[in-house]
């Protein structure tokens, strides 16, 4: 009787042992202690997070570039400007102030809201609605060192863009039109050079005859 019970129990125990072994095999872990299924899910989630971060960083970079390109540096007020020209500071010094006046008038307030740096290109706006169509202006420029000089007979119709230049203590503009390169250097030098006058014939040092009275 005992032998029969042993014969019956042996297969049952074998089945139980196989079941236990099978259960252990399905729970095999990876080298880092994670289940194989769990490891696969974690890797997928990591790839998704990296991809989302990359997209976010790219979006921020593109937005920064667009904002930089959209910002146009100006001289004057674009909102009220009815005429404009492009000016580039090709001198060797930053410009801290720009004033403009029509002949016989008063200088405007400083048209610069921020320093006009060397190498910068700006659009200069001016509301000339109350001036004559052929009006010519004087533009006073102040450099960071405190040096100042003026551009005379400045117009908004002779050119669409010009370089502000400085040579031999003289500020002037250089530009190009259909006939070629132009410069106002000689005209500015002549404008600033004192004109020597001679006394009319028959007069000596401003006196008339011998009475010593000034004319």
Summarize the structure.
Helix content is 32%, strand content 26%. It has three helices and nine strands, in the order ααβββββββββα. It has helices at 2-26, 36-70, 185-192; strands at residues 74-75, 83-89, 95-102, 121-126, 137-143, 148-154, 161-167, 170-177, 180-183.
Q: Given the structure, what is the number of helices?
A: 3
Beta fraction of the residues?
25-35%
**Spans where pLDDT lies below 50 across 5 or more residues:** 1-29, 203-215
Distance between the termini: 161 Å
Number of strands: 9
Taking all Cα atoms into account, the compactness measure Rg is 43 Å
Main sheet strand line-up: 1-4-2-7-8-9
Q: Biggest sheet, open or closed, and with what strands and sense? A: 6 strands, mixed
Overall pLDDT score: 74
Overall SS class: alpha+beta
Which oligomerization state do the chains in this entry correspond to? single chain
Helix fraction, binned, reads 25-40%
Question: Tell me, what's the shape?
Answer: elongated
Taken in chain order, the helices and strands follow as HHEEEEEEEEEH
């Amino acid at each position: 009787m005992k032998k029969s019970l042993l014969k019956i129990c042996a297969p049952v125990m074998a089945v139980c042992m196989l079941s236990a072994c099978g259960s252990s095999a399905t729970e095999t872990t990876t080298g880092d202690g994670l289940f194989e299924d769990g490891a696969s899910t974690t890797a997928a989630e990591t790839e998704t997070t990296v991809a989302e971060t990359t997209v976010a960083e790219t979006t921020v970079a593109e937005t920064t570039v667009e904002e930089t390109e959209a910002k146009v540096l100006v001289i004057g007020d674009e909102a009220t400007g009815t005429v404009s020209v492009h000016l580039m500071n090709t001198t060797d010094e930053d410009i801290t102030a720009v004033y403009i006046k029509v002949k016989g008038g008063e200088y405007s307030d400083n048209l610069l809201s921020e320093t006009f740096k060397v190498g910068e290109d700006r659009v200069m706006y001016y509301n000339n609605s109350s001036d004559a169509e052929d009006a010519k202006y004087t533009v006073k420029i102040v450099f960071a060192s405190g040096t100042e000089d003026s551009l005379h007979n400045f117009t908004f119709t002779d050119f669409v863009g010009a370089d502000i230049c400085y040579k031999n203590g003289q500020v002037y503009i250089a530009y190009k039109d259909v006939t070629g390169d132009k410069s106002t250097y000689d005209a500015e030098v002549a404008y600033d050079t004192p004109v020597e006058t001679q006394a009319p014939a028959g007069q000596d040092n401003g006196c008339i005859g011998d009475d010593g009275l000034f004319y």
